[in-house]
Amino acid sequence: MTIEDPIVPTFESLSFSSNPQLLESRIKKLIEKFTINFKDEPEFISRSPGRVNLIGDHIDYNFFPVLPMAIDVDVIGVGKSYPDSLEVQLINTDEAFTPQTFVLPADGSVIEIDSENESFSWASYFKCGLIVAHKYILENHAHLLDSGKKPLNGLKVAFDGTVPTGGGLSSSAAFCVASTLAILKANNVPQISKKDLTRITVVCEHYVGVNTGGMDQCASIYGEASKALLVKFKPNLIGVPFKFPSISDSEELAFLITNSLQKSNKHETAPIHYNLRVVEMGIGADLLAHKFGLTLPKDSNIKSGSLRGFLDSYYTDVLHEKPWDGNDVDVGVARLEQVLKLIEKPEIFTAEEKVGFSVDHASQVLGITSQQFTETYLTKVPVRFEVLKLYQRVKHVYAESLKVLQSLRELEKANANNEGEKFLTAFGKIMNESQTSLDELNNSSNEKLNEICAIALANGSYGSRITGAGWGGSIVHLTTTKKLPGLIEALTEKYYKAEFPGITEEELKEAIVDSKPATGSCYIKID
Ligand code: NG1
Ligand code: MG
Q: Is residue 1 scored above 60 in pLDDT?
């Protein structure tokens, strides 16, 4: 194991967890469930946690750095390999996820998901894991499959998850990564590095039609206790753990996560929400490039240019400066500030264009026919819209990326001068500005989410913002250990009890997550 390329660890004890008793009892129950259902003993346990993104949303798929942390809630899978079978059987402690059985292709080919026609279920996410794990094995451990002639081993897995689904804490990434780890283990892959696991799982959800960025998988995999992560995408996707400054002897910085209890099902709403953002930002990048006669590498999820790609090309090809290495924060800040000024120029976006683009107008600006435009941008990923808000999305991405770098600067300053207090105020302010941008430019907030932020800010939060995709899901609040109880109390009374009069204590406990940075993906030995 090297520092640059750590291996996904296997733990013999549960002391890595902040609540080992709870984890132990969950594992015990899960093993029991496996044994009763499958009349057999499981051989391995895989685990991957949820994450909260502290700052930098809707920029990961534009390849700008983000600041998430892995949290305690997680998905665990206990499983066993059946080398003589082609059957995959999945069960879940959550009854909403009904048992699933399907068969692996006998000819050794990689399983396919027909996301248009196949009935969509939680097993579809497991199949995403099968696809990426299978490809990885073929590329790196082909001998395990007789050079690809042999199918994957059948397997049975029982899952238990504590990451709220549709809550913006990345239950899907946690599930995909825990599944991928189980599949690798069931096929005797001796070990995998965090870097490789991240690289292969980043595209998992693309197979079910959601064009995710790479933050969630990376955060889930690289998480470390008491550390947040800087996730970088270029030149390579990597998570760099870092510590927050301490505030005083009696007070620590704390993050509270509150689920709005407005479920956002990304799979269903992707055409008008998440995927539409991916598309708008991709078109925005190509449009900017066109203005400067640049051709961008088609590196975005929709095979257009990306906004990071435009920024980089603008500096290297138009201004003839060195490419940004992604490390020098000052260079990044200066460039993002400048590009934010650039997009305000009327020759880049006219006043009318700032309202929105029709397909006809966008095609005209890009110098292509509407048909070409539709083929290039609007068919691979289905989307629905009235106008394309290219200016707003571009501005959000550059401004939000700038906020991430500004946060890093504040962090450096605070750590160097031991100024935890100042950091709280400064970072809180940046988080609030990010929420405004998500609301006004990215349109991924709504009234209720804004209301949660307002209640929190009046009751002990320094900064409150949506975390993850938005349109529901969770809000993350920056506070201190001292202010935490008052903040929870206020949100309970003024949001949860007011909004959901019959809400139970149990539901409240699930909705309000006081979560510390947690250990990332791992295997756990069964004793
Ligand atoms: P959530 O909504 O938490 O799953 C999604 C994407 C991220 C990122 C954020 C917005 C998935 C699995 N993840 O997060 O990659 O783009 O939205 O910052 O869709
Ligand atoms: Mg998700």
A: no
